[in-house]
Amino acid sequence: MFDSLFAKLMKPRTTISSELGAFHYGLAAFEGMLVIRAQDPGGSQRIGIFRAGEHIARLKKSAEVIGAGLSISPETVLRNIKKEIMLRRPGSYYVRPMLFKSGDYIRLLHRHAPDSFIVLSKPFNFRIFLMKTRLPISLMLFQGLHSPFQGEFASAKISGRYLVNALAKKRAYDLGYNDAVLCDEEGFITESTSANVFVVQKGVVFTPTTRAIIKGITRSIVMDILREIGVTVTEKDISRQEILEEGSVFITGTASGIVACRKLEGRIIPAHPLVREIQERYARMVTDQRPDAQGCWSYV
Fold first, then answer.
1. What is the residue range of 203's domain?
2. Would you place residue 294 in the very low, low, confident or very high pLDDT band (cuts 50, 70, 90)?
């Protein structure tokens, strides 16, 4: 469901097609954020934005890659997200703030193309979300295309970056898989279509380096959890052959949570108790049940 700001923007249809060059050239940066009815430090139910500061910092950094959002402060972004939430019924939401260039589509990116900011949101059933994360998924290895982005462009959450991901997702669905794992031009694993990838082999957890992936906020949380429980986490280039070797695989993301893989390229993946422990700790964190979780929230 589009928010009220976006609805207002969409009313003049003859204008929208001529002014939103972002739709034509992928000049938009965005985030996906969880807004959850959570307990505040006093035990009362409040609506909290999970890891708002980290998401907004990444949004600004992504926007700067495409030359957008330079005149919009993090405080302005957070204030507008809160306004959107307050316009709705009290509850949980998946919120997507976007910064984009709104110049004439005829000109690729002219010097004075203005910045625009909108907030999209839709209701989010958090209990169903946690239940779905317990259902393992099937993954395929996507071949034929790879993301051309590396470095700052790879880590930027910008709309133009997701073309290959979208095609990989469609291919996975067409072949009966839940999702696909992508590789870079050298054949190393990068990420799934919208989540980071972890591999568990012989008690050690591996995850791709940040050279060609989105630096996921949930990925960072999982790495912190693993270190807390004394599990070694290694960032390395993971080949297609390595991920197919005996071991477990799971993916992490804001919208997906922490989800185990049950089948990879037709091979049944054994369940690993470590994944369930990470899921439990993450669930406690996002429901604000951990004593140190209070710093994770920006309350509305």
1. 131-286
2. low
